[in-house]
Amino acid sequence: MRTPTFLFFPLFFYFLALASSQGAKAQVEEQYRIYDTRTSQEISIEDLNVALAGANVVMFGEEHDDSIAHILQADLYEAMLASYGDVTLSMEMFERDVQLVLDEFLADLISEEKLVQEGRAWPNYRDYAPILALAKSSQNPVIAANVPGRYAQMVARKGLAALKELDNRASGFYETFDLPSRDDPYRKKFFDAMGEHGHGMGPEVFHAQLLRDATMAASIFDAWRANRRGKVLHLTGRFHSDSHLGTVKLLQDRRRRLELMVISCFSVNDFQDPDWGEYRGLGDVVIVTVGDAAGGE
Fold first, then answer.
1. Distance (Å, rounded) from C-alpha 274 to C-alpha 238?
2. Model's pTM, two decimal places?
3. From CA 232, how far away is CA 260, in angstroms rounded?
4. Does any domain span residue 160?
5. Does 27 fall in a domain?
């Protein structure tokens, strides 16, 4: 029996699209390597998803301009949704005072264009659009986790005391924190990263960094506490989470028994033969990419 032409063409284009999708996935998989520092083994993204079974919170530290990392984040989030169901997405890329705007977008009340405009989306918003679309289609919450930039800039200029001058209505947009000692490893890491510029900086710039960390830690903790049976996937620049410092340390201080998985993802020059011994201290899982990133932590 001859197959009708009107049935042949839809099937042809379906299999063409499927082959194209599988080819694109294989091409991406050739541009990253995943290393579990706890077992000293390279693993697949499927293995990574299985390894997250016992985690309450997954911290995915990225370099903001690493295109491969963004694809990986969406793939991992999709796998987590399929395996675990309830997965709250938490994002450094949105600030607490635009939570309502973000919620309105997820509820399909406002357009993506309005989200970008009124949610003060980052210039590379398109990199995060696929993972937001997954959250929207699966009806999972997305947390605008970061402190408003105006408050971080205010602290950098005027110090922490300036927070006391804010209206009481602003108190829900930031979190306070205890100052670390002068020999704190995160403090040292911060000023080392500043290089020569760091020598002329007062402590206020570091305090602004801590304000971001403390606010994100509280946002993540509140998201987990709202649904303890689910998981939280937090996207952040890896400076905030590498070596279990920054946001991770402050989150762990809130609840020692919270099960955290720290992922550090970045592009490298030794992709073909990575020096895992050098990278292993950065996280529980290290992902190296051969993408186009050049920093952006």
1. 18
2. 0.89
3. 10
4. yes
5. no
